[in-house]
Amino acid sequence: MKKKMKGVIFHGIGDISLEDLDVPVIQHASDAIVKITLTTICGSDLHLIHGQTVVDPESPIGHECVGVIEEVGKDVTTFKPGDRVVVPTFTYCGNCFYCKKGSPSQCEKGGILGFGSIRGGLGGAQTEYVRIPFADMSLVKTPDSLTDEDVLFVGDILSTAYFALENVPIHPGDTVAIVGPGPVGLCVQELAPVFGAGKIIMIGTREFRLEMARKRGAIAINPKEEDAPARVQELTGEYGADVVVECVGTPEAFQISFDSVRKGGAVSLMGMWGEPVSVPLNDMVMNNITIFTGLVNCHRIQEIVDLIECGRISANHLLTHRMKLDDILEGYRIFENKEDNVLKIAITP
Ligand SMILES: [Zn+2]
Ligand SMILES: [Zn+2]
C-alpha cells in the first residue's frame, strides 16, 4: 500500500481542501524527494484560487517551502538523505534552450511547484513531501547556522525581490520606491541596499505594513492620505525615484509607479495582474523609462542564502503567525482577509 500524507488540493475556483495524498516517489534519476519541514502561503496562491492564474482542477498547490532530503535518484551527486535544503519555486534543468539562454523560469523540462499540469505537473509545497526534479540544479543546502525560518522565504519571495532589482539599472545611492508593502515589497526593501539603494520609499495603504517598512528604514507614504507621486517628487529634488518596484498588480498601483519614476529611470513590475492594464507607451518612450517584468528565475538562491548567513539581510520579521499543516485552511482564511496584521505564516507539517 502506498504511503499517505496530507496536502492542499485546488479543486476549482474558490475551492481548496486538505486531502490524503500519495507520498511522491523518485521518477527520474535526477529527482530528490524532500521531506518538508516548513511551508507557507503566498499571495500567488490566492491569485490561483481566485482564477487569476490558470491551474487545472485537482492540482496540489503551495510553492514556498524548506525541508530535508529524504531520498535521491542515482544521478544526484550534490545531496544525500538528511541534508537540509532550500526549495525553489521554479525547478529547472540547466540544459534546455531557455535555461541556456538565461531564462530558467521558462525551462522546458522543470516546472513550478503547485501550479498544475501547465507548469510541469509537479507536487505542491503545502504538504509533507515533494518531488524535486533536477535536484542538483534546483536545490541549495541550508547552512547549519541558519534555522528553517531564516531561509523559508528564499525560494520564492526573496528570489522575486532579487530578480526585480537585478534586472533594472540601479547604482549606488539611487532612490528606490516600492509600491506595495506586502511580503514581496518588504523583501525588495530588505535587498535594495545590497544593490546600492540609498533612500528607500515605501508606498502603501496598510498602516501595520507601512510601520514595518519604517522600522526597517524606509520613508513611508500612504496614498490614502497624500498624493504619493507628488511626495516622491518632493523627496527626490522634484525628479522622481531612480527605480520603482511595483508589487501589487492593480491599475492604481501601476499608475502610482509610473508617476513616481524619474525620466530615464526604471520600473520593475512584480505584481500579478488580474486584469489588463493600459500602458502609456508613448510617455515611456519620450521619458526614457525602462520597464522590466517576468516570472522569477530561481537561480540566485545560493547568493540569497549567503546574504542571510553573513547578516546582510533577514526576512524573519515577515513571520507574524505560526501554525500546523492541519490548520492551514484557517491560515488561508486569515491570510486572505489580512486579519490580525498577518504578513506571513510559518506552517509545520
Ligand atoms: Zn509565491
Ligand atoms: Zn531547462
UniProtKB/TrEMBL annotation:
<protein>
    <submittedName>
        <fullName>Alcohol dehydrogenase catalytic domain-containing protein</fullName>
    </submittedName>
</protein>
<feature type="domain" description="Alcohol dehydrogenase-like C-terminal">
    <location>
        <begin position="183"/>
        <end position="308"/>
    </location>
</feature>
<dbReference type="GO" id="GO:0008270">
    <property type="term" value="F:zinc ion binding"/>
</dbReference>
<comment type="similarity">
    <text>Belongs to the zinc-containing alcohol dehydrogenase family.</text>
</comment>
<dbReference type="Pfam" id="PF00107">
    <property type="entry name" value="ADH_zinc_N"/>
</dbReference>
<dbReference type="InterPro" id="IPR013154">
    <property type="entry name" value="ADH-like_N"/>
</dbReference>
<keyword id="KW-0560">Oxidoreductase</keyword>
<dbReference type="GO" id="GO:0016491">
    <property type="term" value="F:oxidoreductase activity"/>
</dbReference>
<dbReference type="InterPro" id="IPR013149">
    <property type="entry name" value="ADH-like_C"/>
</dbReference>
<dbReference type="Pfam" id="PF08240">
    <property type="entry name" value="ADH_N"/>
</dbReference>
<keyword id="KW-0862">Zinc</keyword>
<feature type="domain" description="Alcohol dehydrogenase-like N-terminal">
    <location>
        <begin position="30"/>
        <end position="143"/>
    </location>
</feature>
<keyword id="KW-0479">Metal-binding</keyword>
<dbReference type="InterPro" id="IPR011032">
    <property type="entry name" value="GroES-like_sf"/>
</dbReference>
<dbReference type="InterPro" id="IPR036291">
    <property type="entry name" value="NAD(P)-bd_dom_sf"/>
</dbReference>
<dbReference type="InterPro" id="IPR002328">
    <property type="entry name" value="ADH_Zn_CS"/>
</dbReference>
